[in-house]
Structure formats: structure tokens, C-alpha cells
Amino acid sequence: MKATKTTTMTNNLGQVVPISYVKKYDRQRDKSVKKVLSMWQKERAALEKIMAESLKELHGLLKARNEDCKMSLAEKGNFSVASFDGAIIVRLEQNYRIFVDDLVKEAQVIMEAYAERLIGKVGGQDGKALGIIIRGTFSPTRSGSLSMAKVQMLLDMDIPDPEWQKARKLLYASMHPEKGKAYIRVGIRKDRQHDYEYIRLDAADCWPVEAN
After folding, report:
1. 156 and 107 share one domain
2. Phi, psi angle pair for 194, to nearest 5°
3. Which helix or strand (DSSP H or E) is residue 143 part of?
4. How far is CA 39 from CA 10, 46, 143, in A?
5. Last residue of a domain, one of 10, 43, 75
6. Residue 197 within any structural domain of the chain
7. Which end of the chain has fewer CB atoms surrounding its CB within 10 Å, N or C?
8. Are 187 and 197 in contact (CB under 8 A)?
9. 92: closest CA among 83, 79, 81?
10. Residue numbers of the domain that contains 63
11. Exposure of 130 by Cβ count < 10 A (0-12 exposed, 13-18 middle, 19+ buried)?
């Protein structure tokens, strides 16, 4: 079937304009922009397919590992697998953010009070150092969450004081982890003496040399 020749174009005001009234450059501009969009949409769809198939492969490996180990291992968090010769590595990296409820304020007050008691003792350097750690831990990120690494470091401190332990339990109870973005990283190395070089599927990283 013969394609129908386009006789009109629609401008950015929604007006239908006879194509004979549209300048040659404007017609070329319209064609080029739509061509670029089509290419990017096609590659975006291809990347989404690659991601879906890669995740399917990794989840299959995780299931196979669980069956081989005769145990159920967690399916969340980071997961790394390598080729038999170790030349290729695939990493699934899952970020988690911590959001807290109003119990965190009570935990913070108790912990800061403990640090103040240490400062009141002779020297007080331990209390000052602990106070800095506490303030840093309870300072939220731009997203409103707390740093999991900082919270974990605070919780791991071996402080037997009853009030501190009470605050520690409150902090645990206030925490609500939320799954963030997941990333897949694929690396390859020449041999065991070299580091892995990771393949970046990033348009900004694929700028052609001749275009510089």
C-alpha cells in the first residue's frame, strides 16, 4: 500500500499549517528531532529488556545457589557472581534507606544525655567525640532518611549503660527500611593481576571521539 504524502504540519500552538508554508529548515528540524527521539526510545526499550533479562538470570542463580546449599538465603541486598575463570563479574547492588518515626527523637535525647554525662567527667573527651557521632547520625540526608552506615555504627557501639541500651532499643523500633534503587554492574578483567573494568551503559560515557 502506497504511503499517504503528508500535506500539513502542526505547530507548537496546535495550528495545522500547509506544508508548503513551512520553511525547509523547519521541516528538516522537525524530521531530525523526531528521528533522534525514535532512536532514543528504541535504545531505552533495549536497555529495559537487557535489565529485565539480567535480573531474571541473577534471580535464577540465586535460586540455584539456595537449592545447592540446601538453605534459604535472603534475596535482598547485594549479590555478586563471577564466571568460572573469574574474568567476568556481575554485581547486583541494592540500596536501602532508613526512615524513622517519632521514637527516634526519644532515642536521640537519651543518647545525647549520656554523652553529656561523659563530658561532665574528668577530661570528657570520650563524651565530646560521642556527641559528634550522635549528631552526625541523627542528621537526615536530603531525602529525609538517615544514613544506614552511621546508624549501624552507633548501634554497634559496646556501651553497657542501661539508659544507652534503652535508647538503642528505641532506635531499633523507630527504623523502617525502604528499598531504594537497584543497580547491575558488569565487569571484565584481562587476568587476575588486573582490576575489573566495568561496562557503563551511560549515554554520557559513549560520546564519540570524533565529536570532541
Report:
1. yes
2. -110, 155
3. none
4. 22, 11, 34
5. 75
6. no
7. N
8. yes
9. 79
10. 23-75
11. buried
What average pLDDT does the segment 129-138 reach? 91
Element (H, E) at 95: strand 88-100
What is d(CA 150, CA 139) in angstroms, rounded to the nearest whole number? 10
Residue 5 domain-assigned (yes or no): no
Contact 172, 104 (CB under 8 A): no
Which residues have C-beta within 8 Å of that of residue 61, sequence separation ≥ 6?
81
Regarding whether 101 and 64 lie in a shared domain, the answer is no
- pLDDT tens per residue across span 61-72: 888 887 876 655
Q: Are residues 102 and 174 in the same domain?
A: yes
User: Domain tally for the chain?
Assistant: 2
Category of 144 on φ-ψ map: left (φ > 0), alpha (ψ -120 to 50) or beta = left
Q: Which residue has the cell 541523627?
A: 138
**What are the grid coordinates assigned to 185, written together?**
554492574
199 inside domain: no
Of the candidates 118, 105, 113, the residue with the CA atom closest to the CA atom of residue 170: 105
